[in-house]
Specification:
Six copies of one chain form a homohexamer. Chain A has 340 residues and is of the alpha/beta class. Chain A has a domain of 230 residues: UDP-N-acetylmuramoyl-L-alanine:D-glutamate ligase, CATH 3.40.1190. Helices cover 35% and strands 24% of the residues of chain A. In chain A, the strands form two sheets. In chain A, strands 1, 4, 5, 8, 9, 10, 11, 12, 13 and 14 form a ten-stranded mixed β-sheet that branches. Chain A has a four-stranded mixed β-sheet with strand order 3-2-6-7. In chain A, helix 9 runs antiparallel to helix 10 and helix 10 packs across helix 11. The radius of gyration of chain A is 19 Å and the shape is globular. Chain A starts with 8 loop residues before the first strand and ends in a 10-residue tail after the last helix. Chains A, B, C, D, E, F: Keywords: Kinase, Transferase. Chains A, B, C, D, E, F: This is Sugar kinase. Chains A, B, C, D, E, F: GO terms for molecular function: kinase activity.
């Protein structure tokens, strides 16, 4: 797939959320101000790819008020094309984050199930036009969990993309506390994965979708990947990352993949002073897409893993690093020498 | 009514909102942090009365998450009894504020119509217990506009209060952009005012409820008040304030009232460097309730007006001043001499 | 000229500066942090017009480092087209501002004469392409004062614009502490005004350019305008604003113009609590351009003056208001009523 | 003792201090603002227990000014009963903290020896009433060191508690730079420990009080504990924690205890990115009291140690964590997985 | 006196205080951080004079801890000679300020009566050496009110200064809430004024010292001044300022003086958007001393009044303006034109 | 050399820079404010030595504007003599810093090559006077790289110092991205080292100057040092530090030296939670100079290494620690015990 989609845009579909968080590691009652960022798992991918120099476009709804205007301005600042963003009379989704540290976990409280994105409809997105010059369409398991109309809108997009032969990257994490509109999330995720080409996930996600019971060993991962490719023939490759959390402030990660024909993996990277854990998976996905466009599978996986590692050092939801910074980490330059 | 309710608690029923606002006069895209406060028109009244030294209790729902916990902590900090606050699995209502200045108006964007308070039900409030030792019950026109169940819960509270002979203060402002659940707001406000004893509002509010057309002159106010007392016999007195806005930063206010038998008014107070306009009406209501407990009608009106004026100098939604500070303003001490 | 250029983009040429300022009214030794904004007199015009909904493009150089990247991101956030921005190996220009208050004036210290824009060259701008679909080209007297190559680059742009029949707005303020490269600023400004169509300035600027001595009365202004139109026949109209500074915190402004055939003026607007004085002239220029596109001369002047007044309430260099907000001020809505 | 005191309140007696600290790791001359928190070793215990859901009451003096009002509001926010807090005409005690990092130690400067608490008198506390429905009374070695009248007030409280059979937790750390009123601190601490039931401390504290010379080994600790129980027969159990400080930012802790009949200890917990070291001992004490109420001795010790570890991740003096968070750490969930 | 003392240093004797204040107009419970400044009425005079370019020296005690070190660093930053500052084992005095606005007054809470300066002794100051090359010694009525030893130390300094023929400026404001060590403040102030040469104060201060009852008219002021010069023959001139406080945010001031032979006064200056009211009297005193050195009495009074007016626009306790800025205000440049 | 120069001042010559940096680990587009500090490699040495209690003087140019005034105030605050600082009409040099973390490196963008220091000339420094009572003159490789006139000014200073027998410490790091005025940096550095007495640097710096190729082993270092002493006979000793960067947040350092007759080294110190990496080399130099004055070579090296380690925990460019804190680290007190 190397370079094949270069110069084509990457389309990302999903909710844009405002994140609100007391500074430092404060608990909410200890704060009088909150930092805020605009994020959202799919938009984070678009933002990171824009910082990598790719053309990206976000398809979403925002609120028709001062918050929605600021969300659009934030996407423009990242360099994301906002021409397919609609403004509707529902508030923007948001979440509150109390940042953990060491052995204390971070906590999140969401306010998104009646927001502007939950009210998106297939009628409001012109998928034919949006996907006209696209090389990739990216989606995650969050979107179909928000509302039935969000699921339908996504499904329509995948169908159009499939017809156009566009690469579809699926990050189908299952979040049990979403999925409140009465459908079986596992079934829907399986349906949507069945329309996709790249699977970003591992044994856990495969077990959820296929209702299997593979273990987390290398062998388990290979077996699970093969089972997925059999069950969902459009899927070509499976890219996973393995996280070893020493504490909220100290994480180790490496990537592994089944390319359809062989197992590959990366070295483990270690982040001893985590700045921000949010969006690290999205950084992996963005790194992977960039890698698939520019490199072979092994280097794409290296790039995804190093991008994910770097995101732990970046505040906010999006991974604001350059391809050069990622490549330097791959090449082992992790000692913190100042760049003058 | 002087002193009759002293030592009895004041119960306030309504939504607690988080307010989020960029510091200074920033527009949202100019900010990376927001100040936040907990407010809500009825809770502001309770908070101000608690600062005046009264016993107050808030009846409300908050979210069952870190935001709801912080809202409860904020009420406790104000000194409000939170034993009748329920935690439910819906997000706390909130609003965003861009603070205007001079000839630029402030802007607000709400996120409240599917929040924890909108989901309050009559079953969740034990009005008999809550009102057992109460001297006042305070409500505003916001509450019945949020949702039908909020309206029903309020109505039940007013009935219990009426049976117990508790003074009921009504601040029935009509907000047209609420009232989305299909009922006629004017009708419902009239019904609820018909169960109350003190009317906090003026010609505008009376015209809305009675569908009359009184003018804003002194005479118009007196005629409107008389019409209201005729249409809603439980109402004993009408307390109004007149605002003259030179700009967002420069406001003039005075109070006027129909006591049932005579017209009274206060001197005009001028605030040339407004710090925060939000909650000034609630400060008036709190000042009025305090005044009705401790003073005669004229001094109660003076107290309400001076409390309202002082709120323009206090950040946040609630009026954090002492009775002594209000009385000093009434006595003309407005020159800004430092208190050491 | 009403509506003629609608839908065509407005091109702005000039330096993008970082502004650094201690918060509140602090002096620099009283601060440990500074607020920063990206501005620059011409870019401020582009930003304001982008907020008005117009297509705008900035032609400039920025530094090839993290500061230049942030400048580009800031322009993207405003909604300005940055495709004609070059990155060069010279630092971005910047200035420090200590914000005055009341009878204390603000102070500015510049660092711009060896920056990225001072090193712009005619070779680095493809004026033919940039101006291909433009309706307006905007320049100010700052640009030719920075460096000889900046002057040459501007001159070339004006020639191309003239050939294409594009409206050229000139804001030729003379700043004596610039102009350090050995040329007579007055001569150069006269040459460049002679290539322009709209003159934004008044008696002072005309006297500087024509070396005349008109007084500041209405009659003086009319006479000066006529003299300018005679000396520079390409100039069609003269738009001026008159400022009466009570103090750094209290300003009064009104606009006046010579339309080529008649004298018009606006009401005076008063800003009693100035938030930010910087960029108010640029807000006037942006309002004027918007007005010339959408309205007749009188309303264009009203719009320019009200936009200028509103800028006094906005932090930073650019005027982040909507056309609706400007129109409301023109219609007299200046009392600071909150917009919910 | 398991569950025996459940539902009874815990009374804490001691000074409430304002802590003032430059943000981040700044030295004071590098700062223009300071963060502030209200703390005090005994109040920290009450605050933590309130967060655990227990009823707590603080007995103390605060200043009769705006600072004392804020201290009361802070205690209310924590959920502490403030009905036994007196306001007196002496300033609130306070301390300044420069936060260390890595191999640089934190520094504290106190201003407390003439403050409102130093002026507390036995006459101002109604111990009979305060302790009427109490299950625990908590004190530390700071209180009798502040002033003779503070010592006398404490002693009277211990006598009343003893008569009522209330459990008395003693945290008798000796601080040599206090004790300026002319008494032998070791003697007084021994006297007060002799009136208590639970000893929170270890070999060091026992050696200070008994003027013995036990070593820090497990055997030394057991021997010291036995010696203490012999010298102070009211003491039933000894709970200690062992800290291994790699640096100001990296700490290891475990708990050990002599239950009167056996030696128990916990696993060691490691905090690699310390957020705030202050109040970790108080978090241990609060965890212990909670554990003694709800669990057996081993689990109480586990709870105390895990609560102490978690406090290292919380800003400010008080340990704002829930019992669920503590239990999760005991169960080994320390990898920093986000709670959504 | 014009120019006579030029190039000689001005010595200021008094307490250095840390001021702690929530930002904006927050009340303390609304804040989590406080701004801080180092001030103190006499040090403010030294700081302002240092900014005017004069050599100044502060004689004082500070705490022997991190706070005292920061106080010394602050004085060094102002440019004040700190070689006569002693470090003692008592905490630095401090005060808390809640900043008022409009009709709400500012509030101050002090913590100074057991601080490092209250413990100053005559033995710790080598007045002979300090005053060796001094032209002025400045004192205020705060110092003798703090403690008896502070009073004795001041008295000794005045005696030495008198012997050396140094000009002594007295600002003998009487603060009733100080003076807690058992002496009659009015008597002591009269004694000390009797050793001084320049009286900074007016009818109020003279009435307090002489126990007279002059009124506040021009005639009353002249009569009071004459009475003072008769009672205290060392006093040569009396310099007063008259404040008209519209509100905490809007102040008007003018100066008046009795030169020994004639009455003079200044124009009134108006500050409509007060930034900081603290230290405005000290700015007047510093301006006066500078004026007495460099100008005649009328211009000295003008300078004092304009310096005082400018201080209202400067955050913190000290007046950080240049002589040029003061002279511009005297010359009528108060319109807020930006200085580039 | 022990104690020989005690009580003599240390003169430092070089540029004072403003450092501007988004707080926390933010990227510039994520920030609206920046922290700022005054630094500069040579001034950092002076500041650290002033904090150690030494008399220090900075010879430099600053801008003749509000920024230059603030730079002077910052130096005064550190306690540095500023009487040889000139103000010139060129902007102060500055740099922007994005602070890295973990495996992400920090990034710096400079704006200094046309600043006030680049315009320094030999005529503007009175070296005879400045060096009259000096014990040390300190310079680094940055200064001769800025501009030819800066190089000439430095050279003249070294000549005067040499004549006076003053110890000259050279920190001749070669920065390739400076040196834009057309001279061979290696040649010039060799010339200037040839005039110095103490070499602060290691194999890398020696190889650059001598164009040799020694390796980094202990043996390589000794051989390189001997070669340097042969090539530059005025050099008496070589002091090096070895850094092992685990990541931007985790560093290990130790010192080694060739004393002219023997090899010495220190233990390795580890900083696991780096607060600020900038200026750590300058802290080493300052520690070394202090050590050379007060201790023997081994302890001087220990002191330099421990000072360097402590700087990693201090924000800003200068090492604000006391000699006591450094000695405690040398003695092994690195466990973070709070100093009360």
């Amino acid at each position: 797939m190397k370079n094949s989609a270069q110069h084509k845009k990457i389309v990302s579909f999903g909710e844009v959320l405002m994140r609100l968080s007391p500074a430092e590691n404060r608990k909410l009652p200890q704060a009088k101000t909150m930092d805020f960022y605009f994020g959202g798992t799919e938009m984070n991918v678009a933002a990171s790819l824009a910082y990598f120099g790719e053309k990206t476009q976000q398809v979403t709804n925002v609120s028709n008020d001062l918050v929605g205007d600021a969300a659009i301005a934030a996407m423009r600042q990242f360099g994301i094309d906002v021409s397919a963003v609609n403004k509707v009379d529902h508030p923007l989704g948001l979440y509150f984050l109390e940042v953990g540290s060491g052995l204390r976990a971070s906590k999140i409280a969401y306010n998104r199930l009646h927001g502007s994105f939950a009210n998106i409809t297939p009628q409001s997105v012109n998928w034919e036009k949006v996907l006209d010059d696209a090389g990739f369409l990216h989606w995650t398991g969050i979107t179909p969990a928000i509302s039935e109309s969000a699921y339908q809108t996504l499904k329509e997009g995948l169908q159009v993309a499939k017809e156009k032969g566009i690469a579809i990257t699926a990050d189908p994490a299952y979040r049990s506390n979403l999925w409140q509109y009465g459908k079986d999330g596992h079934e829907i995720l399986k349906e949507l994965v069945g329309m996709s080409t790249i699977f970003i996930g591992g044994v856990n996600e495969i077990n959820e979708i296929l209702k299997t019971d593979f273990d987390f060993s290398k062998e388990g991962f290979i077996a699970a990947s093969k089972a997925l490719l059999e069950a969902c023939p459009s899927i070509e490759k499976v890219f996973d990352k393995i996280r070893d959390g020493v504490s909220a402030s100290w994480q180790k990660i490496y990537g592994r993949a089944w390319t359809g024909s062989e197992y590959i993996e990366t070295q483990q990277l270690e982040i001893t002073n985590v700045v921000d854990r949010i969006g690290t998976g999205d950084a992996y996905a963005a790194g992977l897409i960039y890698g698939l466009i520019h490199f072979d599978d092994q280097q794409a996986l290296n790039f995804a893993n190093a991008a994910c590692a770097l995101k732990h050092t970046i505040l906010g939801d999006a991974n604001l690093v350059s391809p050069e910074e990622v490549l330097e980490v791959i090449q082992g330059s992790t000692g913190g020498r100042i760049k003058r």
